Amino acid sequence: MRRFFAKKQNIANEEKGYLESVGDLMSILLFVFIIILTYLIVTTIKPKDSSPSISEILDLQQNLQNKEEELQALQTTLNNTQLQLQMRDSELSRRERELSERLDEIEEMLLKGREVRAHLLELIEEDMLNNYGITVEIDPEAGVLRLPEEILFDSGRAILKPKGITSLEALAEIFATRLPCYSGRPGDAKPEECSCFSPGVLDVILIEGHTDNVPISTYSFSDNWDLSSERSRVTYLYLLGLNNMFSSFTNSDGQYLLGISGYADTRPTQDNNNETEEQRMRNRRIDFRFVLAVPKTVLNNDPGSMSRNDYQPCLDLN
Asked: Could you give the CA distance from residue 14 to residue 37 in angstroms, rounded to a whole number?
């Protein structure tokens, strides 16, 4: 029995020594593994140097200088742009003042022109009545001198009646006296017969033919357009035959002062709808329309244009 327990004790001691040997071996292997791992870490991973190198510092300084130069260039561009905007604002303000002054000049010139035109029509009306006993109608606001149809033409015809011839002869004499004082260019010499000289006021004097709304279709006239145009043409040619000087009257642009136009029944007199014979009779007429010149050359700022100093219309009180 003692042998059995002694043998068993020997076997247990042997097993204990084996396990201690294996444990020592594993400890050695673990230590070697740790040493190898530490070596690998030390040799493969280098700590990063937190301090920049000299080349990196120089690169940063150069980049900073470049950015400063770009900023200075942008600031210069901004300053130049602001200066240009200020100059443009100043130029726009100057042009606005000039335009306002020119518009004031044009308004003043047109007001003077209307006043002179109205006075001229009143003089012609007085001359026709006082010197020739002929009554004419005037519309000073619209600039119209009106000769009714019964004075000049028979209904539907464009041949001057004896009374119409007398009326045009009287009107031609008055035109020959009055119109030289209102034709020509500013700066022209004043005619001796003019106590007051207002060249450039009138652009054109249109001899307008008008009819009523009754249709017409004859061998001579296909419609009222033909009739009205022919009446204005006959009136113009008769005036020109009485005094050829009318063809020398010009406006400030050197264009003929007298012209013709026909409107058929498209421009009845005011508050006239051609419903009665009396209304239709008033629409059958010849109008002399005195059209004011628009002082557009002042607005265009042409160096050779008419200015407020050139445009000095006056009232002929004779």
From this structure: 35
